[in-house]
Write a structure and sequence with these properties.
Chains A, B: This is Autoinducer 2-binding periplasmic protein LuxP. 2 copies of one chain form a homodimer. By secondary structure, chain A is α/β, with parallel strands linked by helices. Chain A has helices spanning 7-14, 18-25, 33-46, 52-59, 75-90, 104-116, 133-137, 159-172, 188-205, 218-228, 241-253, 268-273, 284-299, and strands spanning 64-69, 94-99, 121-125, 142-145, 154-157, 178-183, 211-214, 235-238, 260-264, 277-281, 307-310, 313-314. Chain A folds into 3 domains: 7-57, lambda repressor-like DNA-binding domains (434 Repressor (Amino-terminal Domain), Orthogonal Bundle), CATH 1.10.260; 64-157 and 284-315, Response regulator (Rossmann fold, 3-Layer(aba) Sandwich); 159-281, Rossmann fold (3-Layer(aba) Sandwich). The structure holds a DNA duplex (16 and 16 nucleotides).
Chain lengths: 316, 316
DNA sequence: CTGTTAGCGCCTTCAA
DNA sequence: TTGAAGGCGCTAACAG
């Protein structure tokens, strides 16, 4: 392997000065088309690759954004990350993805690493108990997803709308006896907000509430099903597809194919396996795109703190 | 926000020369302990963070490895990535993750970006039709997962062992009529190799083979089920959990709870929803760890080309 | 239009 | 044990 080439080598090879090479690299319009072609020719042939580290150091921007996801294997976050990547690649940035595993400590570690790396910005998937103080100090170089904080831009899911959408849909189908299974309210968004949304909807729609909360797992929902299932129950709304999976499984065992189940997450597997089922899509992909666009806008100089709420829709 | 500090600022603040600060940063032993403490003190107080870009440019190593995954939402690759991250973080590296979406073109784009970024190494999740020529030129700075190539280190899954394990397990349970559903053999590993493993196992075990291949989707497997299901069928081995899900679903509809189904991937959902089911774990997490360890060893100077095969096991 | 000249922030000889 | 000086690869004035 030959030594790494630099613009100086290219300059010599092309018989020009190194700044001309630099100009070609940066698409500076004031280069004679002819010269440019010659330089590009040489670059091609020699397989020269400009050093990002040097560019980053010179220009101050590494064209990198950090993405701190809570769990790599979360389908919802995956969808959002896809949206993020699409946007930031298009804008010429790269992403370094890190996993917080819902640990505030790990998150802060990651943040400090990202800071060392001179990343241009950060997108953080928030979680209950996550410490936003460091992120806030990043000011206009960060966007938080899924939790709201006054000081820093965010993209949130419409936790109320999600549940309302499910409830309204069921009501339209003539269902009146609708139960709910969620997760522990110590989780502010998926837990508390969705539960409250259910309770409030029941009040305003004159539905007798019947609900249980537990862990975010199939098993937990499976076990809780019997506690909210009455002979007259017509539907069960779940705070997530994972829960819906457990509920639907239990209903199947009990031969209660009359009970409709709704989840949140747009997992195609759910309705494939259990027909009398539907899912609400909180708009993960769109939220990812939105957060990335927001960040890029801020990096470009827009210093407003914006709070977006992603609109939910019925999956498919 | 104050201007970014440099070692020079720290040097002045601490009343030393900038090289001394640099020495402190690099843990150079020849610094009077007293001086070091003073410098570290100042660094703490001022919140100085050395610029990785500058370090990278100077030293040549950015302490970054690129990871090119085929799909972010692939549960199997997620597990492997977790393994990779665990290892490389521990070794002081960071990861920039990119998604190839099974496109050779995108992969090459990503590779060129990574090269520009001066990453220390690359881990690539291979796929059929993926163009390894560029990766090969990276020589000892790359590891490929899931496909084998002579020239470059790799960690592969034991596609034969995976199927053999499933078959043997079924035989032990007294099953003799075992069918197979896989994916199109144009996919070399999940498709061709696993199919061949099935056929060969049948030969040596004197089992009448009965198989179909299609797409890697629940629907495809669902539809193919009837083609391999005979009254005497006792089990169906599937090339992946996704397929197994489709097959189990169809069997449930047909009331064939007598037929056992096996998948590949260790998805907990599979056996949760369908009891008469089990899954083979190709060792994704371990493979991820192995590939990262391999890469780091190579970056540290070991220039052997190593090919590892991850051992499969029955999930749980 | 193009070449020359400074640095960017850091690490590393080379002297002291 | 420490400071001064040089240079990594690149970009951005500043002159031609």
């Amino acid at each position: 392997m030959t030594r790494k080439l630099t613009i100086l080598d290219i300059a010599k090879l092309a018989g020009v000065g190194k700044s001309t090479v630099s100009r070609v690299l940066t698409n500076d319009p004031k280069v004679k088309i002819e010269t440019r072609e010659r330089v590009e020719q040489v670059i091609q042939e020699s397989g020269f690759v400009p050093s990002k580290s040097a560019q980053a150091m010179r220009g101050g921007s590494a064209k990198v954004v950090g993405v701190i996801i809570s769990r790599l294997d979360s389908p919802s976050e995956n969808k959002a990350v896809s949206g993020i990547l699409d946007v930031i690649y298009a804008a010429g940035y790269d992403a370094v993805i890190m996993e917080s595993q819902f640990s505030a400590e790990k998150t802060n570690e990651h943040l400090s690493v990202l800071q060392k790396r001179n990343v241009d910005g950060v997108i953080l998937f928030g979680f209950s108990g996550c410490d936003l103080s460091i992120v806030e100090s990043l000011n206009h170089k960060a966007v938080v997803i899924a939790v709201d904080t006054g000081q820093i831009s965010s993209v949130g899911y419409d936790n109320y709308g999600i549940i309302e959408l499910a409830m309204a849909n069921l009501q339209q189908q003539g269902k009146q006896h609708i139960s709910f299974i969620g997760v522990d309210p110590s989780d502010k968004t998926t837990g508390l907000m969705r539960l409250n949304a259910y309770i409030e909807y029941c009040e305003s729609a004159n539905i007798e509430p019947s609900y249980q909360t537990g862990q975010l797992s199939h098993e937990s929902a499976y076990e809780l099903t019997d506690h909210v299932l009455k002979p007259e129950t017509e539907a069960i709304v779940c705070a997530s597809d994972t829960l819906a999976m457990g509920v639907a499984k239990r209903l199947q065992e009990l031969d209660r194919s009359d009970v409709l189940v709704s989840g949140v997450g747009a997992t195609d597997l759910l309705s494939f396996i259990f027909p009398n089922t539907f899912s609400i899509d909180p708009g993960y992909y769109a939220a990812g795109k939105a957060s990335a666009s927001l960040l890029i806008k801020q990096l470009a100089g827009c210093h407003d703190v914006t709070h977006l709420t992603q609109k939910a829709m019925i999956a498919q």
